[in-house]
Amino acid sequence: MVPTVEEEIEQFLGQVQQRQREVAAVQNESFRKVLYLVMTDALAKVRTPRESSNRTRFLNFVRELR
User: Fold this and answer.
1) Quick one: 6 exposed, middle or buried, by C-beta within 10 A (0-12, 13-18, 19+)?
2) Are 44 and 60 contacting, i.e. CB atoms less than 8 angstroms apart?
3) Long-range CB contacts (< 8 A, 24+ apart) of 52-58?
4) What pLDDT is recorded for position 65?
5) Chain CA centroid to CA 38, Å
6) What is the Cα gyration radius of the chain?
7) Strand locations in the chain, DSSP E?
8) Cβ(23)–Cβ(36) below 8 Å
9) Structure pTM?
């Protein structure tokens, strides 16, 4: 059976939360910060896939979170 959009969203959120827990467990603080930035950039790309500028995409995403 094909999953519904809601099921796919729940699966995606579960995967993001799992990665977040894994990153939180990283002992090296600098590396952990880099991983959080990479995760944030990946989520920004999901939010605005057509934006070609990483900087613009990242900053807009962070501004939307406030």
Assistant:
1) exposed
2) yes
3) none
4) 86
5) 8
6) 14
7) none
8) yes
9) 0.80
Rounded Cα distance, 59 and 49, in Å? 14
> Among all chains, which residue has been given the structure tokens 């959080």?
36
Domain ranges of the chain: 5-65
pLDDT at 66 over 90: no
pLDDT of 2-50, one tens digit each? 999 999 999 999 999 999 999 999 999 999 999 999 999 999 999 999 9
Distances (CA, A) of 55 to 29, 31, 44, 59, 63: 23, 20, 10, 6, 12
Measure Cα distances from 22 to 12, 39, 47, 49, 62 in Å: 15, 12, 22, 25, 22
